[in-house]
Design brief:
mainly alpha, Non-ribosomal Peptide Synthetase Peptidyl Carrier Protein, Chain A, about 80 residues
Length: about 80
């Protein structure tokens, strides 16, 4: 099943909420993980692994560091679906 951008954003918001306690409303496409959402690299890896399971995609460790904004992650997950 292919997820829409909105579904991916909502799913990421839930994952980030579970990992960090951040409100889901705070997770918006233009937000950066480190500066705006204050997510460290360890939490980011956990979020990536959970997103892989939720969306059925593979996010290699070396790609995680390239996911700077929430939009980067949504786009990566959308393109990784097939």
């Amino acid at each position: 099943m292919a997820y829409t951008d909105d579904e991916i954003l909502a799913g990421l918001a839930e994952i980030i909420n579970e990992e960090t306690g951040l409100e889901t409303d705070a997770v918006q496409l233009d937000k950066t993980f480190t500066d705006d959402l204050d997510i460290d690299s360890l939490s980011m890896m956990t979020i990536a692994v959970t997103a892989e399971e939720k969306f059925g995609v593979k996010i290699p460790d070396e790609e995680v560091k390239n996911l700077v904004t929430v939009n980067d992650a949504v786009t990566y997950i959308k393109n990784a679906q097939s």
